[in-house]
Amino acid sequence: MSSLDATRARTRRPLRSVLHDPPEPLLHRVIVLLGWLMRRLTRPDWRHADRIPASGGVLVVVNHVSHVDFLGYGHFLTWGAGRWPRFMAKAELFDAPLLGRLLRATAQIRVDRRSDRAAASVTAAREAIAAGQAVTIYPEGTITSDPDGWPMPPRSGAARIALATGCPVVPVGQWGIQELMPGKRPGMLRFWRRPVCRVVAGPPVALDDLRGHDPDGLRLREASARIHAALLAAVGEVRQQVPPPAGSAQPRERR
């Protein structure tokens, strides 16, 4: 059996044998629908889902390549790693009538950028992690503008949450889902392509030596640099390419 065939077999197990996070009835239906949809729109190829802890609070950092990549990653996290994702999502999505209702019903975390409520999202993420949940953040804060699709330098949010909580930080690289809907502008799904959706979890980011202190600017920059380097490595593995050097990976200004 090929690795891709093995992945397909794993995604078809009964849901109760997959999930470590017991879902509420609505979340159970969402996960079932997600699995059904993604098996028809993509061909999943997953690696190292076991690097995501089966229980307890965890921060998962993932690269952002498409408006629909949350579907491919969500498929991996729920059916592959057995965890329900709590995404940190921009406020504009919550303000959409139907999508906003779904995001609130599934306990996603609203991020009000460019406002005095921006810090509330970090607090909500910390509380979710303390409650043993899996919080997902796109460290770049937006779909990458890199011409080759590599992750851009991160904002400081992931580092702030990581240092404040002390939880494991797992980088996840994804590639291929952008063939379903490419680019930064929303467009029509290319459902006829059924691309291979590759997702790989990297080893946890080593941050223990930076914890235990108030996160000053130097520690935040160093934590952001390590998170960026780990994410680049995960994306390089999933793309089977050598990633560009991380450099200093200066975090962006918070907005």
UniProtKB/TrEMBL annotation:
Record bears the keyword Transferase: yes
Which GO biological process categories is it annotated with?
Answer: phosphatidic acid biosynthetic process
According to the UniProt entry, its GO molecular function terms are: 1-acylglycerol-3-phosphate O-acyltransferase activity
Recorded hits in InterPro entries, A to Z, give: Plipid/glycerol_acylTrfase
- Annotated Phospholipid/glycerol acyltransferase domain residues: 58-177
Q: Which top-rank group of organisms is this from? A: Bacteria
Sorted alphabetically, which Pfam families does this protein's record hold?
Acyltransferase (PF01553)
Alphabetically sorted, this entry's keywords are: Acyltransferase, Transferase
Keyword Mitochondrion assigned: no
Provide one Gene Ontology cellular component: plasma membrane
User: What name appears for this protein in its UniProt entry?
Assistant: 1-acyl-sn-glycerol-3-phosphate acyltransferase
Q: Which organism is it from?
A: Desertihabitans brevis
